[in-house]
Amino acid sequence: MKIFQKGFNYSQDGQGNRLVYHLQGCNMRCPWCANPEGMPVDGVIMSDAEWLLESVCPHQAVTGTSVDRNVCKGCKGRVCITEHKTKGLYLSYEEMSAEEVHKEVQANALLFYDGGGVTFTGGEATVQFDELREVLKALESCKIHRAIETNGTHPRLSDLFPYIDQLIMDCKSCDPQEHERWTGVSNERILANIRRAARQHPNLHVRVPLIGGVNDSGKDREELLAFFREIRGENVTFEVLAYHGYGIKKWGQCGWDYKMTEKAYVDEEILKGFRRAIKEIGARYRGT
What is d(CA 238, CA 223) in angstroms, rounded to the nearest whole number? Predict the structure, then answer.
């Protein structure tokens, strides 16, 4: 498995204290992504200006505290990371076998208090579908709580349902054109997978990242509410997440421009009102 980040957090990526694995690769290109380094399937060379060394690049791409990414595009050898191990330039991910992940999770089992366990997220966890399924199945015998966070696009997502104790799915927009405009991917399969999960999975958590100028209009919120009325049930909970700019620095480290502006921040009253509206339609709200 290609893993670009891992660590513990409490009740942010599932219930209780959790060991969270961020898997490399995503089929969406959301411009507000907080983990942009997780998007390319083959990873990206990241830079840290404080630790850059000009000597690691034989093509003079590194000058002082900057990296000329145009030079990097034509480089096939990647000498800067294959022959040098520095904090200044490094590949976004490391590899672990499914067996190694399984053993690491088991070794940390004593830390899974308050109903905690392991969560696989991304990037998009289902991009590494076969490896993910292998680990989830292996953990079943250990009685360790398993969760995944997914954008819901994989055509075989339901094949994982028997091996997932908590399924967390993003629902960014019900408008197909707007969804594709912002993410690069249609929402048709996403909505179908959410509907299916609401019918078949015992613990579905639907999250909406509310982004100013993207999906926060009155029309957007009404369409989401209509969909939530359809899928609400005792096995389904909802949460609205506010936009934040925590990933801005990472975009720069990847050599990419961050294009979201201050307009992406959603007014607090709109956030509160939308959260309240979800509760008022009889849906179970869980979160901030």
Answer: 15
SS3 sequence of 116-139: CEEEEECCCHHHHHHHHHHHHHHH
CATH architecture of 2-40+93-285: Alpha-Beta Barrel (3.20)
User: How many whole angstroms separate alpha carbon 173 and alpha carbon 269?
Assistant: 20
The ranges assigned to domains in the chain are: 2-40+93-285, 45-91
Strand-pair category, 66-67 with 62-63: antiparallel
Q: Quick one: 3 exposed, middle or buried, by C-beta within 10 A (0-12, 13-18, 19+)?
A: buried
What one-character DSSP code corresponds to residue 261?
A: -
Decide: helix, strand or coil at residue 233.
coil
Q: Which segments of the chain does DSSP mark as H helices, in order? A: 69-73, 79-82, 98-107, 129-140, 176-183, 188-200, 218-231, 248-253, 268-280
List per-residue pLDDT tens for the chain, 288 residues long.
999 999 999 988 999 999 999 999 999 999 999 999 999 999 999 999 999 999 999 999 999 999 999 999 889 889 999 999 999 999 999 999 999 999 999 999 999 999 999 999 999 999 999 999 999 999 998 889 999 999 999 999 999 999 999 999 999 999 999 999 999 999 999 999 999 999 999 999 999 999 999 999 999 999 999 999 999 999 999 999 999 999 999 999 999 999 999 999 999 999 999 999 999 999 999 987
Residue 40: φ, ψ to 5°: -70, 130
Task: Report the C-alpha gap between 187 and 176 in whole angstroms.
Answer: 6
Euclidean distance between CA atoms 194 and 182, whole angstroms = 19
| Those residues with Cβ within 8 angstroms of residue 76's Cβ, 6 or more apart along the chain or in another chain | none
Q: How many CB atoms lie within 10 A of CB 196?
A: 16
Query: Which residue is listed with tokens 């579905």?
Result: 204
